[in-house]
Write a structure and sequence with these properties.
By secondary structure, this protein is an all-alpha fold. 64% of the residues lie in helices and 0% in strands.
Length: 77
């Protein structure tokens, strides 16, 4: 396995992980549920949300960086 294949595997891992983490995020807007106080029952803890945000941003930066490296052709096969 050469370097380009390793980077492609990391790129695919970051894409799948980023998709899953974005789907795990809780919605920021309460919508009509916020009127009756129902939205407060299902919110996650603050530390879990902060950790989820950090991991999401880390995977986003990794995905974008690897996308630039792969698309620019800086690595030769």
């Amino acid at each position: 396995m050469n370097l380009i294949n390793v980077i492609k595997v990391l790129w695919m891992f970051s894409a799948v992980g980023l998709s899953v983490l974005v789907l795990l995020h809780s919605p920021k807007g309460d919508g009509l549920g916020g009127l009756g106080g129902q939205a407060q029952l299902f919110t996650s803890t603050k530390s879990a949300e902060v950790t989820l945000n950090r991991v999401t941003w880390t995977l986003f930066v990794m995905f974008m960086g690897l996308t630039i490296v792969l698309s620019a052709g800086w690595l030769k096969a």
